[in-house]
Design brief:
With 124 residues, this protein is α+β, with helices and mostly antiparallel strands. It has 4 helices and 4 strands; from the N terminus they run H-E-H-H-H-E-E-E.
Amino acid sequence: MSRLSAEYNLKLSWNFFATSHGKGVVDAIGGMVKRMVWLEIMVKKQCRSATDFISIAITKTNTIILDEIYQTDIDASKLKLQQVFATTKSVKDTQKLHTVIAIRPDVIECRMYGDATSKWTVFF
C-alpha cells in the first residue's frame, strides 16, 4: 500500500469493516450488469467471451460505464503485483487494527480504529 501510494502520488488508507466483508456499491452494480446480460442470454443472445459480455451489457445500459480489460493487461498487472508482494514485509498484530495509513514508501501508521489517538508506526 505504501509503495502504491508513492508510485501514484496518492494518499492511501485502508479501513477494515468486518460486517461488510468487502461488499459494496461496486458489487451491486456488477450484479445488475450480470443480470442484464443473463436476461439477454435467456432470449438466445450468444455470450461466449468477455468481449461478447461487454457488447451485450453496453446495449442494455447507458448509465453504467463498461470497459473490457484484456488478458495482456491482466497478466502485466499480475506480474507487477507478484514483484511487489515478493518483497512485502508483514505487519505485526494486523488482526488488532482497523486503520492503516501510508505515510511514506517505508512507513505506515496503524490505529485500532479510524479516529483513535493511539497509534503505532511501522518502519520497513
